[in-house]
Design goal:
The complex is a heterodimer of chains A (about 300) and B (about 550). Chain A has about 300 residues and is an alpha+beta fold. Chain A is built from nine helices and four strands. Chain A has a four-stranded antiparallel beta sheet. Chain B folds into three domains: about 5-55 and about 370-530, Multidrug efflux transporter AcrB transmembrane fold (Up-down Bundle); about 65-135, Hypothetical Protein Ta0175, Chain: A, domain 2, CATH 3.90.1070; about 195-365, Gyrase A, domain 2, CATH 3.30.1360. Chain B has helices spanning about 5-25, 30, 35-40, 50-55, 65-85, 105-115, 135-160, 185-190, 205-210, 220-225, 290-305, 340-355, 370-425, 430-460, 465-495, 500-530, and strands spanning about 45-50, 55-60, 90-95, 100, 120-125, 130, 165-170, 175-180, 195-200, 235-245, 250-260, 265, 270-280, 285-290, 310-315, 315-320, 330-335, 360-370, 425-430. In chain B, a hairpin with a 4-residue loop joins strand 13 (about 270-280) and strand 14 (about 285-290). The longest helix of chain B has about 55 residues, at about 370-425. Classes of the chains: A alpha+beta (about 300), B alpha+beta (about 550). Chains A and B meet through strand 4, helix 5, helix 7, helix 8 and helix 9 of A and helix 8, strand 18, helix 13, helix 14 and helix 15 of B.
Chain lengths: ~300, ~550
């Protein structure tokens, strides 16, 4: 039997103070990032901010500086460039909220295909989003995060008990905020695909939480004399290896996606990688301590057998 | 053998067989199969989303307010005609959303209200101010959206796109999806062009006309119009002709025209529009033919205005303004304008399909080139293979023979997932590929949970068989709960997501559902088969 973790007896609940400090900082950063996003100070993708994005693939290397000069000479203002040097691709984004779409992408395509004709430019994709669609997508995203949260809270509350529901929801939010914080600090683009990743990891991070809660519920009935902290500790130690192994398999898939999945899905994979790691941490260090904090009365914790 | 094993083996075999049959259309084998066989396959297979096969996703808003304005204009014109026929001396004009009619007496009111019961009187002091009631305005907007949908469908049909999707979304939005379009800009132009064709007289009598410069540079329009502000005669307007360079077809200058605002003839009487080539200059132009009503009006207008210039205007741009030499019967006209052949063809298409009753505003325009889609598919395949290998080897390394059983379930999971997507004719998008790959990682999670339980049972001193049974029984609800939470978020994503994200939600939720089947029935069956030969001494886990 190969075991990553053998019969651990780690006092997880004893460390909850440090965990809360660390989680508190991450969540606070995440909330700060959320406020910045709301204020428009974050690197919002074209799908949320509105504007134009054009991705062009060249047959050979093109200096970013030359592209910038060419576009400026073509009369384009307020744009940012980003290159994917390994694939000779350049992404041009214009975030001006134009009432009339179509102008910027046409200018970009025309200027670059004419100027760099010898470097075989091919238009990979163009995205033009009007302000109306941008704000609708923003609202939809907020709505989706809200709905998912409520759905999860209700389900966990039905299957376990409201205290667990709250613990799981707080842990889920913690994961989402932590990943949001990292993306904000790395100045990664906040776009629709990223929100999809956030929702997916919210759903997935619950897997670990459910595994832990399941064992806590079981052990509360088994070890009636032990104090609740000890029962939770015992439960976490018992399921620690499976919590880590299940996360590891998903981590491996996300890693394959991160390394080989191509540039469009790159940030999605990064968010999943971070999310799986944070989710494993939070099911141990956030979800369970919150349940304990919400009251040490153990009787209603395990209402009936499902 | 344990009861029920055969039954479960049969179930697994049937589902795998079904999955393979459903997935056949997506394999290269499909091309080589005889037609009687491909025709009878139960599914068309997995469809590639726009992000993978390349194409165009457009969302337009129909500017309903403009449709109401146009309807109001039309009402004003016909009211003016009716008053004239009844010899009532007065004036009719449109001011914003209102039709303002004088004189404000009961006779006039009766004429207007008999003609347009849907107009409601807003003010009768001084002049009669009418506008369409809210309900009527809504009806006009609704009809406009329906018409736009129909006209766009018509234009795309004539342009020729395989399997377009054209849908109405909400009250006034239209979604157009054109997979595999090679020239996206041209497609956007064809769809979005209002194609409002109008004939108006050039005003050469006003003093302003003499002052007009023969050409200005593009970009100077606002400055130019400012100069003439307030001096343009009542009932006149200035529109421009776009002069293009003969070689590059780029806009080089704009020629201003002073025109009478009255529309003498419009494109709604067109019956035919086609491309011809001018023999002398070898230049394409569009020839048009009007129906009987249109031809009669055209004949009358040309007859009454010999010597004057008649401007042909499309979407507010003057294309040409030839001098009328003679009365023109027969109802033929043409538009010239230094067109390329494609431009002329596209113009003929939009004229034939008819003008949009209201202009469109582009809300969203996503274009994906075919090469990006191909790259994405290749990258997705690569990531999928690597993910599978990583997970498969990890499971064997960590759980030995039991790991191999989990790997069997994983392969089963992938086969069934692809089969299910094909059976549902689901759309595979780039995020969908990511969903499948994540599902690979999640697929073994259930087995991990069961295996860990089994290890616990073994440690507690149970026999291998009891350990397997106990492991399954005790892990079931944990597996169930963790799957449901993923399904909840997948359902939300499906509800909120745009196309590519819907594809992700479909892949993820199918993956999770199928995982319940493969983990609870698939691996369990293998364990039962292995252990049916009698009590084993140990469990390789």
């Amino acid at each position: 039997m190969i075991e990553l973790i053998k019969n651990t007896k780690i006092d997880f609940m004893g460390k909850k103070k440090y965990a809360f400090i660390l989680s508190g900082i991450m969540s606070a950063l995440g909330i700060f990032a959320l406020i910045q996003i709301g204020l428009g100070n974050a690197n919002l993708g074209v799908d949320f901010a509105g504007g134009t994005a054009v991705q062009i693939k060249f047959g050979q290397t093109v200096a970013l500086h030359d592209v910038r000069l060419a576009l400026e000479a073509g009369g384009l203002k307020d744009f940012d460039l980003q290159d994917l040097p390994t694939e000779n691709k350049i992404l041009i984004r214009v975030k001006k909220q134009e009432e009339k779409l179509g102008g910027a992408s046409e200018v970009i395509t025309q200027v670059l295909t004419a100027k760099f004709a010898d470097k075989k430019p091919v238009v990979d994709s163009t995205t033009e989003i009007g302000p109306k669609v941008g704000s609708r997508l923003r609202q939809d995203s907020i709505w989706a995060v809200g709905m998912a949260t409520i759905g999860i809270l209700i389900y966990v509350a039905i299957r376990f008990q409201i205290r667990f529901g709250i613990g799981a929801t707080i842990a889920t939010f913690h994961d989402v905020f932590a990943v949001l914080a990292v993306f904000y600090l790395l100045n990664k683009e906040i776009n629709l695909i990223f929100v999809t990743a956030l929702l997916t990891l919210a759903g997935y991070s619950l897997t670990d939480t459910v595994v832990v809660f399941d064992r806590v519920r079981e052990n509360l009935k088994k070890y009636i004399r032990e104090p609740i902290d000890a029962v939770v500790n015992r439960s976490i130690n018992e399921v620690l290896s499976r919590t880590i192994v299940t996360s590891l398999t998903v981590f491996l898939s996300a890693l394959a996606l991160f390394l080989f999945g191509g540039e469009v899905i790159h940030d999605f994979a990064l968010a999943m990688l971070l999310g799986v790691a944070v989710g494993t941490y939070s099911s141990v260090f956030v979800a369970s301590p919150v349940v304990i904090l919400l009251g040490k009365n153990r009787q209603p914790l395990a209402p009936k057998k499902s | 053998m344990k009861k029920g094993i055969l039954w479960r083996v049969a179930l697994i075999s049937v589902t795998v067989l079904a999955a393979v049959v459903f997935f056949l259309p997506n394999t290269p084998l499909f091309q080589n199969m005889p037609e009687w066989w491909t025709k009878n396959l139960p599914s068309k297979g997995i469809v590639l989303g726009l992000d993978l096969q390349g194409g165009l996703h457009l969302v337009f808003e129909v500017e309903g307010d403009k449709a109401v304005e146009i309807a109001t204009d039309r009402a004003a014109t016909s009211i003016a005609g009716a008053l004239q026929r009844k010899n009532i001396q007065g004036s009719v004009k449109r001011e914003g959303e209102f039709v303002v009619v004088t004189p404000a007496d009961t006779t006039t009111r009766k004429v207007v209200e008999d003609m347009y019961p849907s107009l409601s009187l807003a003010d009768s002091s001084g002049a009669l101010k009418y506008r369409f009631s809210a309900a009527e305005a809504q009806k006009i907007k609704d009809t406009a959206t329906d018409q736009v949908l129909e006209i766009i469908r018509n234009r795309i049909d004539q342009f020729g796109v395989a399997e377009p999707t054209i849908l109405r979304q909400g009250t006034n939005e239209i979604v157009v999806q054109l997979p595999g379009v090679k020239d996206p800009k041209r497609a956007v132009d064809i769809i979005g062009k209002t194609a409002q064709l109008e004939f108006k007289l050039v005003d050469t009598e006003s003093s302003v006309a003499a002052e007009l410069p023969s050409r200005i540079l593009p970009g100077e329009e606002a400055q130019f119009l400012e100069k003439f502000k307030g001096r343009i005669p009542e009932g006149d307007q200035i529109l421009f002709h776009n002069a293009l360079d003969k070689e590059t077809h780029q806009l080089v200058e704009r020629v201003p025209y002073l025109l009478k605002k009255d529309v003498l003839l419009s494109g709604d009487t067109l019956t035919e529009a086609k491309v011809n080539i001018d023999q002398r200059f070898n230049e394409p132009y569009v020839s048009m033919r009007f129906n009987a009503t249109g031809a009669k009006i055209f004949e009358d207008v040309t007859g009454a205005n010999i010597g004057k210039m008649l401007a042909i205007i499309l979407d507010g741009n003057v294309y040409s303004a030839p001098r009328i030499k003679d009365r023109i019967g027969g109802g033929d006209a043409q538009i010239t304008g230094n067109f390329t052949l494609d431009e002329a063809k596209d113009l003929a298409i939009v004229l034939r399909a008819g003008a949009l009753p209201a202009p469109l505003k582009t809300l969203q325009n996503l274009t994906v080139g075919p090469s990006l889609g191909r790259d994405s598919i290749d990258a997705g395949k690569m990531a999928g293979i690597v993910a599978t290998l990583l997970v498969v080897f990890f499971m064997i390394f960590y759980y030995k023979l039991s790991g191999m059983i989990a790997d069997f379930a994983l392969v089963l999971n992938i086969v069934l997932l692809l089969g299910a997507m094909a059976a549902l004719n689901a759309t595979l998008t780039l995020p969908g590929i990511a969903g499948i790959i994540l599902a690979i990682g999640m697929a073994v999670d259930s087995n991990v949970l069961m295996f860990e339980r089994m290890r616990e049972e073994l440690r507690a001193g149970k026999t291998p068989r009891a350990a397997v049974e106990g492991g399954y029984k005790k892990a079931f609800w944990t597996i169930f709960d963790s799957h449901v939470t993923t399904l909840i978020t997948a359902a939300v994503l499906f509800q909120f997501g745009t196309g590519p994200i819907k594809g992700f939600a479909v892949a993820l939720s199918l993956g999770v559902l199928i995982n319940l089947f493969t983990a609870l029935i698939g691996t369990k069956t293998v364990f039962d088969i292995v252990q049916s030969r009698g009590e084993a001494k140990g469990l390789s886990i």
